[in-house]
Specification:
about 100 residues; mainly beta; four-stranded antiparallel beta sheet; 1 helix; globular
Amino acid sequence: MANKTRVSICIDDLFAASKANHPAFNKGKNGKTYCNVDIWENDQTDQYGNDYSVSLYDKETKKATYVGNGKKYVAPSSTTDQHNNTSILDDELSF
């Protein structure tokens, strides 16, 4: 089975960065706006149990804007109804 990571990204921070014309955002040929993010595995799990960090990166200034975090996803042991559960576990993903 493939490894899965579940991340939580702060939409307020994304909107603010987009309005500030952060270079991580670009307009596609289809007219939609896309956001490039970096996701990296932390050396150690943080105090909230997060294993990953998410940021926007500005290649000109070489500065990252932190926008979220994530945890390694462990599938439920029971196979019943696990494919139908589409809820986001907000209480597990703290900022």
